[in-house]
Amino acid sequence: xxxxxxxxxxxxxxxxxxxxxxxxxxxxxxxxxxxxxxxxxxxxxxxxxxxxxxxxxxxxxxxxxxxxxxxxxxxxxxxxxxxxxxxxxxxxxxxxxxxxxxxxxxxxxxxxxxxxxxxxxxxxxxxxxxxxxxxxxxxxxxxxxxxxxxxxxxxxxxxxxxxxxxxxxxxxxxxxx
Length: 177
Hints:
The protein has 177 residues and is α+β, with helices and mostly antiparallel strands. The protein contains 7 helices and 3 strands; from the N terminus they run ααααααβββα.
């Protein structure tokens, strides 16, 4: 692959200029990623690097970033710690934006469907099954949520299970559903 400097591309093919003229929705996944990672390598411009990153992540789709760790991203040539942190920060911002529609303080846990809709955005990209404990006030308002455990196939990875049985007893007026 021959590196073409972004400045050598026609204005209509440069991600920043294209975004300014037509909006972010006009950019391809690789162009969006190129804007985030900003620079390429000695052999690739940022668009070429972004395209290669997409081809190396799970599913070969930009949504595969949700399943990547810093270590996995750094294993991709041209992605160092700074770019890996930028990409993971982007995924975290996306998760928070997706789940911010329902603030936890306003969430009433009175129907299974509503509860599923509340937690789907936050859990959609998890690679493992999870058991979560929701501690509710008597009015079914969410007081506290806790990741109880993660399950990988038939193996359980427990996260301090002793604290989950102690904590509810310290909260006045709780109920177990």
